[in-house]
Amino acid sequence: xxxxxxxxxxVPCPYGEALVDYGxxxxxxxxxxxxxxxxxxxxxxxxxxxxxxxxxxxxxANLMGIAAGLTREGWRPVVHTFGTFATRRALDQVHMSIAVxxxxxxxxxxxxxxxxxxxxxxxxxxxxAIMRAVPGMIILDVVDAAEIASVHDAxxxxxxxxxxxxxxxxxxxxxxxxxxxxxxxxxxxxxDLCLISSSVASTEAVDAATALRQAGVSVQHxxxxxxxxxxxxxxxxxxxxxxxTVVVENHLVTxxxxxxxxxxxxxxxxxxxxxxxxxxxxxxxxxSLHYLLTKHGIDAQSIIRAAxxxxxxxxxxxxxxxxxxxxxxx
Amino acid sequence: MTSTIMGDQVQRxxxxxxxxxxxxxxxxxxxxxxxNGCYLGQALSAAExxxxxxxxxxxxxxxxxxxxxxxxYSIAVYATLVELGELPVAALxxxxxxxxxxxxxxxxxxxxxEFTTGxxxxxxxxxxxxxxxxxxxxxxxxxxxxxxxxxxxEGQTWEAFMSLxxxxxxxxxxxxxxxxxxxxxxxxxxxxxxxxxxxxxAFGLDVRRIDGHDVKALMAAIQDPPGATARVVVCDTDIAxxxxxxxxxxxxxxxxxxxxxxxxxLAELLxxxxx
Lengths: 330, 275
Ligand SMILES: Cc1ncc(C[n+]2csc(CCOP(=O)(O)OP(=O)(O)O)c2C)c(N)n1
Description:
The structure holds 2 protein chains of 2 kinds. By secondary structure, chain A is an alpha/beta fold.
C-alpha cells in the first residue's frame, strides 16, 4: 500500500534574520565567524552590526580561544563554523578554554550529519557524540524553522556553554511555536510504535509515520532538538506506553541520540525492543542528502522497515511519493 | 648549437604548460556549467601552477608524489589528469554525482588525490611526513605540495613550515596559490596573511615570490637547483584569470553561473586560447 503523504512546508534560511533580531535585543552579543559567514547565514548580522562582527579567519582553535576570552569581558559570543571543525578541529580548546571555565557562549555547528555534498571532511556525523563527552555542554540539534528562529532565546537563560548543530538553507516546518531547552516536540501520539527522531531524520520520520498510520499502525512521534538536557520523562513515558521504539538520527548510532535514549532505557529500567537507525560505524561519503540517507538506512522507507521488524509486522508498507520530491530540495 | 636545442626545449615546455593550463581552465568551465556550480576560480588561478608542476616537475618514473592540501581544488587535479591523458574526459561527467569518486571536494579515493584534505591545512604536514619517510629510506623521489593562502590562517601550516626547516628537507617543494580569496573574500579583509614572503623566509626556508601565471618563472622555480632548505614558491595569482567577467564577484570562492553569464565566460575563455 502506498501512503498519501502529508506535505511538509520548507522555509528558506530563517537563521540570518533571527540572529539579527536577537542581536538587536542583546547588545552584549557578538557574532564570531571562522571565514564561513556566507555559509553560516551571518551576513545579515554583519551588515547590521559590523562593529559586533568578528571574523577570525580560517583558524578554529584561535576562534574558540578568542570567544572564551571575550566572555571574560562580559561579551556573549556566538561562534559560527561547521560542526566538524568546531568539534574535531578545536576540541581541546572547546574543553579547556570553554567548558572547564563554563564560558557562556554558543557554538553553532553547521552542516549536521549528511546535509552537505562536500564529503566526509564536512559531514558532522560525530559532533553530538563528541560534545556529549564534554562535561556541562548543552547540546541542541535544530532543523525546524521555528526552532532555528527561537534557539538563541531558548538558550538565553543558560549561563554556560552550548553547542547547537543547525541546518541551513531550506529547512522544514515540523512544529509551531518557539523551542524550549529540554523539551521534546510531540509530532504525533499513539500506542504501537514510539518513533524518536532528530535533525533531518525527523522529516524522514514524519513521512514514515504517515505511511505507518495509514497502514493502521499507531505512532507516537517525538522530535528531539534538545539532546542535553534530554526530556527524560516524556521520552521514557512514550517508550513505556508503546510496544517498540525506533530511534533515527542524522549521525552515527554511537554516542548520539540513539545512545542517549538507550542510556535512558537502562537508567529507568525500561524493557522494550529498540532499534537505532543512523550511520553504522561508517563515514557519510559523496552524494546528495537523499542518496546518502538511503544508502545509510536513515530514509523514511528504512524507518518503516525497522518499525515493521520491531513490531513483528509483515513487511510491505510503502512510503508516499511526495516525500522524495521534497527531499530533492536539500 | 646545444644552447639552441635547449632553448627549443624550453620553448616547447613553455608552450605545453600554457596549453595545458588553458585545457585545465576549459575542463573546469565545462564542469561548472554541467554540475551547475564548482570551484572554478581555483582552477583559473592555479592552472599554470598545476600544469608546470606536472610537466617539468613531477617525475612519475622516479615515484614523485603530488599532494593537494586544499582539497576543494580537486577539479584542477582531475582536469590536469585529463590533460595528461591519465583520466578520460568522460570521467568529468561524473563530477559531484551521487557516490562518484570524482568528488567536488576530493578525498583519498579520488583520482590524483593522496589524502583526504578537505579539512584544510593538513596536506603539508602529510607531505612532510612522506618526504621525511623517503629520506629515511634513501629514496630520491620528490614531493610536490600545493597549499592555498587561506591555509596560512591555520596554525598547522606554520607548524609544518617550522618542521620543514628543522629537518632540512630538500626533497619537497611547496607551491602556494596566493589568489587573494577565501570564503568571506580577500584575506586582506578577513584575516591578513602578509607579508607572506618575509614570514615564511623567517623560518629559514628558500622562498621566492613570483607571478603564478608566468610560465617562465614557474619553470625556474621548479628547475633551479635546490637550495639548502625546502623551496616555497609563493604564486601571486588571479582568481578570474582567463574569464575576466568573474572578476567582480562578491563570492568568487564557488561559482555558479548566472543566466547568460556562461556564454560570456566561454567567449572570454576561447579568446584566450593559446595558438
Ligand atoms: C579546517 C577548515 N576550516 C574551514 C573550512 C571551510 N573552508 C573551505 S574553503 C575555505 C577557504 C580557504 O581558503 P582558500 O583555500 O585560500 O580559498 P580559495 O582560494 O579557494 O577561495 C574555508 C574556510 C575548511 N574546509 N577547513
